[in-house]
Amino acid sequence: MERMIEVEHLTKWYGRTLALDRVSFSVARGQIVGFLGPNGAGKTTTLRILTGYLPATSGTARVAGRDVLLESLAVRSLIGYMPENMPLYPEMRVEEYLRLRAGLKGVPSARRGAAVDRAVERCRLKDVRRRLIGQLSKGYRQRVGLAEALVADPPVLILDEPTIGLDPAQIQETRRLIRALGEAHTVLLSSHILPEVEKTCSHLVIIAEGRIAAAGSVEELTTGLTSRRQVILEVRPGAAADGPAEMARAIGRLAGVADVRHEPTADGWTRLAVTPSGETDVRDRLHALVVQRGWLLRELRAQAATLEELYVQMTAGEAAARSVA
Amino acid sequence: MGKVWILTRRELSAYFVSPIAYVAMALFLVIAGFFFGLADFRPGAPAAMRSIFDVMMVVLVFILPIVAMRSLAEERRTGTLETLLTAPVTDAQVVVAKFLGCWLFYLAMLAPTAVYVAVLAAFGNPDFGPILSGYVGLALLGALYVGVGLAASALTSNQVIAAVTAFAVLMVLAALAPWIGTAVPPPWRGILLQASVRTHYADFSQGVVDAVHVIYFVAVTLLTLFLTVKILESRRWR
Question: Is B195 an 8 Å CB contact of chain A?
C-alpha cells in the first residue's frame, strides 16, 4: 500500500527539553489514523513538523513521498491542516474566509466559488455562510475549521484535536464527517481521549513521552491484548487453614503464572489477580489447584484487557514520573 | 504575486473593520487639520503645506505603530499565524502582503488631506511641485514607519508591546538621532546623522526629490521587511 505519510526517527529538542525521541510511523493512503497520547506527549509537535510549521531537530518526514523540509510548499499544498483550537479570523464571514483560504491554497479564482460551495455543503455550514465567524458557536467554528482544511480538496488531512471542547452530539457528528472523509482522503487526527479515536479510526499510533508506545490497526492492538489477559478469582480457605499470602504463593508456583496479587474483599473473601506469562490459559490449572486444596471458589473469570487499560498503563507511568518531578 | 495580492486584500479589509484603525485615522486627521489650520492656512502665509509635511514626521511616530501593531502580533496571539504559515505561501509573501496592507491603509488615511490642496487652490495660488514632492516624502516616510511597526509586531503576541517597541525605535530614528549625534565623537556623528530620518525627510517638503533620500527610505524599509521575515523564521530555530 502506498504510504502517504512517512515519519522516520523524528527528534525534536526545544532548547534542552526533548519533545520527540526518534519517532517513526507511517500512514497508508486512505487510512484514518488516530494519533493518541496524553497532553504534552508530542502530538502537536509532530503535526507541526508534518505541516512545515516547525522543523525537526533530526530525522525525516515525508508526505506523498516529498520531504516536508526540502519541498515544504509542495507538501503544504497536499495537506489540509486544522491546528488545535481552530484559530480563525473572527471579523470575516464564513464564505469570505473559505474563499480566502482557497485562494491561498492555489485554487484558481474561477473554481473558488465551487470549492467553497462544496466545503460548505460537506460541513453543513449553509445556514451560517454569511455570518461573521466571531459570532458562531464553538461547534460551528469547528466546522468552519474543517471546511477550511477541506476547501482545496487535499489528499491528506491533518486534524489536531478535532473534537476538543465539543458537546456529545457535535462529537458524534464530527466523527461521522471524519469517517466519511476517510473514503477520499488520508486522515491523521490527534486526540488524548481513546474512545474518541477508537470509534473513528482504523489505525492507532500511541505516543507517550515523545516516543511511540504502540502502533497498528485497532484489531491488531486489541488481539495483542487479549493474549495477556488477567484471571481474577475470589476464594476462601474453607476447611483448609491457608492464609491469603499462602494461597497466592501456591498459585504463584503453578506453571504459566507470572504474577499473583491478592487483596481481601469486604465480605471476608480473598480476591486474587493472576497474570499469566505469555499466552498460556491458566484457568483450568487454577481450578484444579482450588479443588486439590479444598478452597471455596465463588468466581473465576478471565478479564479482557481493553485498549483503554493499555493506554492508561502506557501513559500512567509518565504521569507519575511527571508528578514526582 | 497572486497570493500576495489575495493576502493584501484581506489585510486591507481587516483594517477597515477594526475600530483601532479608525481611531488612529481620526487622530491623524484631527492633528493634520489642526496644523493645516494653524500654520498653513493663514492670511499672508505662502499657499503651501510645509508645516503639515514637517510635523508629520513626528506625529506619525505615534500613529503608525498603533496602525501596524496588530498585523502579526494579533495572528500570533489567536493562533491564526499557524494556519497562515502552514498554507502554501512563503513567509516572505506573508510579510510583503502584511506590509502592503498596512501601507495602503496609511495611504487611504492620507487621502482626505487632499481636501487641503483643494482649499489652498480655492483661496490661493499654491505651488503644486512641493506639494507633490511632499506627498512622495510622506508615502516613503510611512513605508519606513510601517516596516518598523511590522517588525516589532512580529516579535510579540502582545499588541501594546509591539506598538511601544516600534514607537521607541522610531523615536530614536526620527527625533533623537541628530541630538544624540551632537554628544558622540565625529565619525559616529556623521553616521548617526545619515541614519536619521530627519536628514533625509526634510528636503521633500521643499520640493526636492533627491535620489539619495529616496534610496534611504526604500533601503531601510526593505531592511525592516527582511528583518520581519527573519523574525518569523526564527520559530524554526528558537
Answer: no
Helix or strand (DSSP H, E) at A273: strand A270-276
Q: Is B44 left (phi over 0), alpha (psi -120 to 50) or beta?
A: left
Taking the CA of residue B94 and the nearest CA in chain A, the distance in Å comes to: 10
Q: How far is residue A68's CA from residue A54's CA, in Å, rounded to a whole number? A: 10
- Taking every pair of Cα atoms in chain A, the longest distance, rounded to a whole number of angstroms, is 88
**Residue range A19-60, pLDDT digits in tens:** 999 999 999 998 999 999 888 888 999 999 999 999 999 999
Mean pLDDT estimate for chain A:
86
Instruction: Kindly provide the residue ranges of all beta strands, DSSP E only, lying in A176-229, ordered along the sequence.
Output: 186-191, 203-208, 211-217
For residue A325, the model assigns a pLDDT of: 38
Q: What is the mean pLDDT of residues A83-97?
A: 91
Residue for grid cell 474566509: A97
ipTM: 0.86
Residue B24 backbone phi and psi in degrees, to 5: -60, -40
For the domain covering A230-303, report its CATH number.
3.30.70.1340
Break chain B into its structural domains and give their ranges: 2-236
For residue B93, the chain A residue with the least C-alpha distance is A104
Report yes or no: A4 and A27 within 8 Å, Cβ to Cβ: yes
Tracing cell 507511517 back to the chain, one arrives at: A26
Q: How far is CA B149 from the centre of its chain?
A: 8
**Under CATH, to which class is A3-217 assigned?**
alpha beta
| Per-domain boundaries in chain A | 3-217, 230-303
Which tens digit of pLDDT belongs to each residue from B93-113?
Answer: 999 999 999 999 999 999 999
* Min distance B73 CA to chain A CA atoms (Å): 13
Ranking A162-176, B2-16, B56-70 by mean pLDDT, the lowest is: A162-176
Are A28 and A309 spatial neighbours (Cβ–Cβ below 8 Å)? no
pLDDT greater than 50 at residue A311: yes
Cell numbers linked to B136: 512622495
* Grid coordinates given for B147: 516596516
User: Are B88 and A103 an interchain contact pair (Cβ–Cβ within 8 Å)?
Assistant: no
How far, rounded to the nearest angstrom, does the alpha carbon of residue B29 sit from its chain's CA centroid?
15
Residues in chain B: 238
**pLDDT class for A224, splitting at 50, 70, 90?**
low
